[in-house]
Amino acid sequence: xxxxxxxxxxxxxxxxxxxxxxxxxxxxxxxxxxxxxxxxxxxxxxxxxxxxxxxxxxxxxxxxxxxxxxxxxxxxxxxxxxxxxxxxxxxxxxxxxxxxxxxxxxxxxxxxxxxxxxxxxxxxxxxxxxxxxxxxxxxxxxxxxxxxxxxxxxxxxxxxxxxxxxxxxxxxxxxxxxxxxxxxxxxxxxxxxxxxxxxxxxxxxxxxxxxxxxxxxxxxxxxxxxxxxxxxxxxxxxxxxxxxxxxxxxxxxxxxxxxxxxxxxxxxxxxxxxxxxxxxxxxxxxxxxxxxxxxxxxxxxxxxx
Length: 305
Ligand code: GLU
What we know:
Blueprint: E1 2-5, H1 15-29, E2 34-39, H2 49-62, E3 71-72, H3 77-89, E4 93-96, H4 100-107, E5 112-113, E6 116-117, E7 137-140, E8 147-151, E9 155-159, H5 161-164, E10 168-171, H6 179-189, E11 194-198, H7 205-215, E12 221-225, E13 228-230, H8 245-250, H9 255-265, E14 293-295, H10 297-303
Parallel strand pairs: 1-2, 2-3, 11-12, 13-14
Antiparallel strand pairs: 4-7, 5-6, 7-10, 8-9
Helix pairs in contact: 1-9, 6-7
The structure holds glutamic acid (GLU).
């Protein structure tokens, strides 16, 4: 049993992030398994070293430890390129010269979801000739039909990747691996058997399952943790400023107090201060609350002004 926490150092960890980390840690520690830390710092423009240090400091502060070296995605370009080359060789992926504006235009943009329009397959058209010299991205040929999985927390899930997002980018035109590709290559390389992360990534999982399959690797199981909502019903992560671990720490919150809060929200305790180790015995996914948690930020501000 091997789990991991894989944050992107694009900001300070907030309570939603560390709740996923705590649950992922408990799930593997309850089985005597290993827990790994991976820094997803592929996006050079948005990642900052002080956020990476912040992640490490916050996890230590909360009492969440990890096994072995920290893996940094920014140092693994050759590994991602090798996986992309394999998929290209197998015909499971193809180069694409479309810019974002081209995709919008070609799609007629009738359906622009959070992730943009479905890719209409322009560069996969037989006989298409890519403009010479133009940097190309690489897209994975999405498999038709639903790709389903049973989430440890949310139950049966599924999406029709081909119908919803179409062929998706696995390497950007600037040569950087996409999140979808890098996460699959690394989960396989690190031998991860269970992925625990925020519910906002549930729709990515079918894409990742298709990549595991195309690369011939066993996929892990998945548990997507419900998001924290503000009292207005909106995602708390969007207004995270005062709800970062760093801010709460600076205002005097202790590690056990925060762990107790997260455990209470997850239905694992009444919320009394505790260490992660004290929650290990008897942890099962069945005991974790599946409903989104409504957090009263004003109450936290009163508790730690
Ligand atoms: N790096 C991603 C994030 O911070 C999470 C990736 C994952 O857990 O699969 O949102």
